[in-house]
Structure formats: structure tokens, C-alpha cells
Design brief:
9 strands; disordered C terminus; alpha+beta; 10 helices
């Protein structure tokens, strides 16, 4: 999906605000060249203050990006793109983040055992002109886990740095019966949605085609002439928030139907 804008991306300084090896692997699969600069944001937001756990994940990702952006603001070669993400497991109105220890990991897995939960990943892509925020969700059905299975899995130490205390791409994959949604979202970065939104930021031809289809060629030209930072297509409008360069929230443009 990124091939039409590959020529532009190859000359961009891209920074991933995460030390997650899973996210790095996902970005490498689509050929992105990037640097890693871990965020120092403490991730201490209260999930109860958000309308959904998806919004909570997005805001956490946004704070990570802002932290890295501020630290690099005086760099003689500031980044063109900063990518941030946060993944949480949700069940019964509760957020399951990374367990603090083996005891907490056991408690998490015991509660998830035999039930369907939802994995939310919030993603933020910040360029010099605009910031796009979105989240994706995937429903995950975990198998019933006997005590010896849980304890054996915890001994692998895999659960200790994973949201929800399991890694679907590792030993934890054997604990999952089925999923509904994006597999990569459960790992930590919804690949299709990420590429779709990144392409939207850089592909003026794509913007023109989508806007011309909905509001006509003339109106599309007028809208595009105002710049990208206030734009969002009807297809993306439901899931995207676009902000200005300094982080002030800007409502998506309403495109007439």
C-alpha cells in the first residue's frame, strides 16, 4: 500500500516513539527505515476518564509522541514523522496493561481464561504539518486455561512485558482460540490502518480522488488548497482526529455528502 509514496518516505526522517520489538518488526515488514527513541511519558493516565478504552490508548500514544517531539524540537534535523502507539486489553470495563510481576500476570490470565476480550491499539502519526490519531479494536477469544497451563506459560517470562499478560505472536498464540479483526493490532500496531493513514498524509492524488468523488472536482481543489492539516476523508472521518502542529485539537472538516 505504501509503494505509491515510497519515493517520499525514503527521504523522511522517521522516529518510532517506542522500544517495542513487535512494533519495530511490523514497520520493517513494510520497508520503513526509522529510528527508535523511547518515550519517557510515565503512562499514568486514568482510563476511567475516557469515553472508551480506545480513546485512552490513543491519548497515551499521543503523550508518547509529544514527549519525543519536544525532546527533538531543538535537533538541527528534526523528524519528519513521529509514530506512537499504545496497546491495551479490555474486559468488563477494566484495562489490562502490562503486569507488574508474575503474580499479577497469573491474575490477568485467570480472568481472561475462557472469555472473549477486546484489544485496542491507539496510534498517532505526527508530521510537521499535521497529526493523525486513530485506534483499532480486535476481539480475542482465549481458551480455558488450567492452572498448570497458566503457571507454565508464566515460567517462559513472555507475559511480563505484554498487555494482558500474553503475546499472541509467541507462546501465547497457543492460548488463543480465534480472533475477529486485525492480527497485527493484537501484536501492537494495526498494519493496514497505519499504512492507510500514513498514505493519506502523503498522497495528494489519493486525497483529490476521494474528495472529487464526494464533493466534486472544483470543491476538492478548493479544499486541498487550504492545506492538509484540517483534512480528513469521509472514509477516515469516523476514526481520525486531526490536530495542528503544536498539538491543539482541530475538529475534522465536515465534507458535504
Amino acid at each position: 500500500m505504501l509503494e505509491p509514496i515510497r519515493h517520499a518516505l525514503d527521504f523522511q526522517r522517521i522516529v518510532l516513539a517506542s522500544v517495542s520489538p513487535r512494533r519495530s518488526e511490523i514497520l520493517h515488514t513494510v520497508g520503513l527505515n526509522f529510528e527508535i527513541m523511547p518515550s519517557l511519558f510515565e503512562e499514568d493516565l486514568d482510563p476511567h476518564k475516557f469515553q472508551s478504552h480506545g480513546d485512552y490508548a490513543v491519548e497515551t500514544a499521543y503523550r508518547k509522541v509529544l514527549d519525543v517531539s519536544e525532546r527533538l524540537s531543538r535537533d538541527p534535523n528534526p523528524p519528519d514523522i513521529i509514530i506512537g502507539a499504545d496497546t491495551v486489553v479490555s474486559l468488563d470495563g477494566k484495562v489490562f496493561g502490562k503486569p507488574e510481576d508474575a503474580k499479577m500476570a497469573y491474575k490477568f490470565l485467570e480472568q481472561l481464561s475462557g472469555r472473549q476480550h477486546t484489544v485496542y491499539t491507539g496510534v498517532v502519526i505526527k508530521t510537521k504539518e499535521a497529526t493523525i490519531k486513530f485506534h483499532e479494536s480486535t476481539n480475542v477469544q482465549m481458551a480455558y486455561l488450567a492452572d498448570d497451563v497458566i503457571r507454565g506459560y508464566i515460567r517462559t517470562k513472555e507475559p511480563l512485558d505484554k498487555a494482558g499478560a500474553y503475546g499472541i505472536q509467541g507462546f501465547g498464540g497457543s492460548l488463543i482460540e480465534k480472533i475477529e479483526g486485525d492480527f497485527y493490532n493484537v501484536i501492537g500496531l494495526p498494519l493496514y490502518s497505519f499504512c492507510k493513514h500514513l498514505r493519506w498524509l502523503y498522497d495528494d492524488k489519493l486525497k483529490r480522488i476521494e474528495l472529487s468523488r464526494t464533493i466534486g472536482p472544483s470543491a476538492a481543489t478548493d479544499v486541498l488548497s487550504e492545506g492538509n492539516k484540517n483534512l480528513v476523508t469521509p472514509q477516515l472521518k469516523a476514526s481520525v482526529k486531526v490536530t495542528g502542529v503544536k498539538g491543539r485539537e482541530r475538529p475534522p472538516r465536515t465534507v458535504p455528502s
